[in-house]
Amino acid sequence: DTLATSGLRGRKDRQGDGRLLFTEVTITNTDGNRVENVRSGEDIALILSYEIGDGKPKTNVSVGISFYGISGEHLFTCWTDMLNSNFEQLFPDERLICEIPKLPLSAGRYSFNIYCEVNGVLADWVLQAGVLSVVEGDYFGTGRMPPQSHGGLLVDHRWRRDRRTNE
């Protein structure tokens, strides 16, 4: 498998009842092309392919991807539940796409876990499902990036000044 595609079909170290099983994760840029490396600040998508063993649609499906830093520290999670966007129905001939605008990670290698519940019951959970390889990008649009020692997360922010009032 390349970094851009992580095959999961043969993974035995997964948890869940298997009603829905992840088979592959593909990382793409906004053009839909598979990429080995993504840039800080780039819009990316993770495409999750899956199989449904009995071939029947699954209802009320919650899906999550959690990202981890080089030391295993949890950085952030993209989860349908947090957005009130669980899938009412998922069909066998579909795949799931998680779009992350303006990737907030500095250069480095990050791992991710993928997770799925069907009607509140764990269906599939794969730890270390893949690696996201991030290269330096122009996240802030200034040509400047913080040094690696300043942490892995990049946060969009603004500064301003204001006059003090004598209150």
**What Rg, in angstroms, do the CA atoms define?**
18 Å
- How many helices in DSSP terms? 0
Uncertain segments are none
Could you say which structural class the secondary elements and strand pairing correspond to?
Answer: mainly beta
- Which bin fits the share of residues in helices? under 10%
Number of E-type strands: 11
What is the first-to-last residue Cα distance? 63 Å
Helices and strands, in N-to-C order? EEEEEEEEEEE
Largest sheet: 7 strands, mixed
Beta-strand share of residues: over 45%
How would you briefly describe this protein structure?
The chain is mainly beta and 167 residues long.
Verbal overview:
- The protein has strands at about 5, 15, 20-30, 40, 45-50, 60-70, 75-80, 85-90, 95-100, 110-120, 120-135.
- With about 170 residues, it is mainly β.
- The radius of gyration is 18 Å and the shape is globular.
- The N and C termini lie far apart (about 65 Å).
- The model has no long low-confidence stretch (mean pLDDT about 90).
